């Protein structure tokens, strides 16, 4: 009988683990080993490398739940300066409705703070995408607060409506201004801005 080769669950050689991680092919033993190495790592650079391998593996496997936990940990514990990761996370959170809108705005803003890393078409599409994500997140908060206020109006719910509406009009105007400057279609951005502001004057900078 042919003996089966033992499964290699070691994780000493990170470079060797990168290709299988990109394909979502790490074994459970390897991911467990990497988690242990992550906890034990003293240097932020080592934590960063290990974390990126784990994220790549979960993402390629389509394990969204694990990937979300890993990217959240990466951004909160290791580094927030990678705009690609912040962008990906903001896009992911944007699928979660009004309950996740504040997270969308937080990570979209963090990505925008580091946008100079991008160039050319990537810069334009990512930046306009982030402005759009922020405005849409604020709009979902505004809509949710309107619904809450309609059900049981109080001074507090009225304040939430006003605040989320103001945030929406500000973000929509910034989105509209960027689209104009970048030569992109401004229709949706302007519509949202006018709807939140109640007047086109505010949106046109008047």
Total tally of structural domains: 2
Low-confidence sequence ranges: none
Instruction: Count up the helices.
Output: 10
User: What is the H/E order?
Assistant: HHHHHHHHHH
Main beta sheet: strand number and arrangement?
none
Radius of gyration: 22 Å
| Beta-strand content estimate | under 5%
Structural class: mainly alpha
- What general outline do the C-alpha atoms trace? elongated
Q: In percent, how helical is the residue content?
A: over 70%
How far the N terminus sits from the C terminus, by CA atoms, comes to 83 Å
Number of strand segments? 0
Mean pLDDT: 94
Question: How would you describe this protein?
Answer:
This protein has 206 residues and is mainly alpha-helical. The chain folds into 2 domains: 21-78, no CATH class; 80-206. Helix content is 75%, strand content 0%. It has 10 helices and no strands. Helix 7 (120-151) runs antiparallel to helix 8 (155-182) and helix 8 (155-182) runs antiparallel to helix 9. The radius of gyration is 22 Å and the shape is elongated. The N and C termini lie far apart (83 Å).
């Amino acid at each position: 009988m042919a003996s089966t080769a033992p499964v290699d669950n070691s994780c000493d050689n990170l470079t060797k683990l990168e290709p299988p991680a990109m394909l979502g092919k790490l074994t459970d033993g390897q991911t467990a080993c990497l988690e242990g190495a992550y906890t034990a790592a003293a240097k932020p650079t080592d934590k960063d490398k290990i974390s990126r391998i784990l994220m790549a593996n979960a993402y390629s496997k389509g394990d969204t739940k694990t990937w979300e936990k890993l990217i959240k940990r990466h951004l909160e514990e290791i580094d927030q300066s990678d705009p690609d990761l912040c962008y990906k996370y903001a896009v992911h959170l944007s699928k979660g409705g009004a309950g996740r809108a504040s997270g969308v705005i937080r990570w979209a803003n963090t990505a925008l703070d580091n946008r100079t890393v991008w160039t050319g078409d990537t810069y334009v599409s990512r930046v306009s995408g982030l402005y759009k994500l922020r405005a849409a997140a604020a709009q979902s908060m505004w809509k949710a607060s309107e619904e809450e206020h309609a059900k049981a109006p109080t001074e507090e719910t009225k304040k939430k409506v006003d605040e989320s509406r103001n945030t929406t009009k500000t973000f929509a105007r910034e989105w509209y201004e960027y689209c104009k400057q970048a030569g992109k279609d401004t229709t949706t951005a302007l519509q949202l801005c006018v709807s939140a502001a109640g007047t086109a004057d505010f949106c046109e900078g008047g």
